[in-house]
Amino acid sequence: MRLKLSLLILMLFVSTPILRAQLSKVAVVDFERAVVESAEGKKASEKFNSTLQARQADIEKRQKELDDQQKKLQAGARTLNDAAKAEIQKDIDRRTTELTRLNEDAQKDLQTLRDELLRPIAERATAILGAMSDEQNYTLVVDTSNPQTNVVWFNPKNDMTAELIKRIDASAPKEPAASAAPKAPGGSATPVTRPATPPAATTTPKSPSGPAPTAPKKP
Fold first, then answer.
1. pLDDT class of 192 with cuts at 50, 70, 90
2. How many angstroms separate the CA atoms of 191 and 52, rounded?
3. Domain boundaries, the chain
4. Is 75 helix (H, G, I), strand (E, B) or coil?
5. Could you give the dihedral angle defined by the CA atoms of residues 147, 153, 159 and 164, in that order, rounded to the nearest 10 degrees?
6. Bridge partners (DSSP) listed for residue 140
7. In the 8-state DSSP scheme, what is residue 183?
8. pTM above 0.85, yes or no
9. What is d(CA 178, CA 175) in angstroms, rounded to the nearest whole number?
10. How far apart are CA 51 and CA 49, in angstroms?
11. Of these four, 20, 55, 104, 188, which has the most CB atoms within 10 Å of its CB?
């Protein structure tokens, strides 16, 4: 009797971890990639990159003007009088201050724009991911895009990223359908002139996590 009881306890002790392993289901997802590579995320990336490039172009232009003034001051170190040197130096200081503020404002504005563009997609993706986890009875979903997540290896079969992207696209708000073309008297439709198709972009847009404008060079 004691022997049977000991064997039963041993079987329970050994089978419990196995049972727990069978009941536990773990999946992984690259949440950031799912958001950025969705159809809406790609449009948001294009809008962000367009704004980023415009701000960078402005900063680079102002940086060049500042560099030119610094070169002018260096070139005229022996030929310019003190008043002229002081005027150029004053202009350099002003440009440096303006460029520093412009750079700081650009970084804040771009971060705000990125949040505004991606937050609605991320919020909907979070709800979709929760529903997917419930459907598959996952007990844990690990976000591999989080730099604090130390994932050594995972089975690609348990990667939910591709399916999450599909569901984000499927849940995207539908664009309003174009209204029917107005009809001319006599029942014939009024012809509509289509705009010329713009040439395709030759450069691949960067993700919204692209580099922010650089700080101005100091004299």
1. very low
2. 39
3. 24-170
4. helix
5. 0
6. 26
7. B
8. no
9. 9
10. 5
11. 55
Largest CA distance in the chain: 111
- Could you report the per-residue pLDDT of 21-80, keeping only the tens digit for each? 456 789 999 999 999 999 999 999 999 999 999 999 999 999 999 999 999 999 999 999
Q: What is the DSSP string of 136-160?
A: HT-SEEEETTSTT-------GGGB-
CA angle, 180 as apex, 47 and 39 as ends, to 5°? Answer: 25
To which residue do tokens 């079987």 refer?
11
Q: Pick the closest to residue 143 from 27, 25, 26, 29 (CA basis).
A: 29
Let me know: does 213 contact 103? Beta carbons within 8 Å.
yes
Q: What is the pLDDT of residues 56-72, one digit of tens each?
A: 999 999 999 999 999 99
- In degrees and rounded to multiples of 5, residue 9 shows phi and psi of -65, -40
Q: Record the tokens describing residue 59, joined without a space.
A: 């900063």
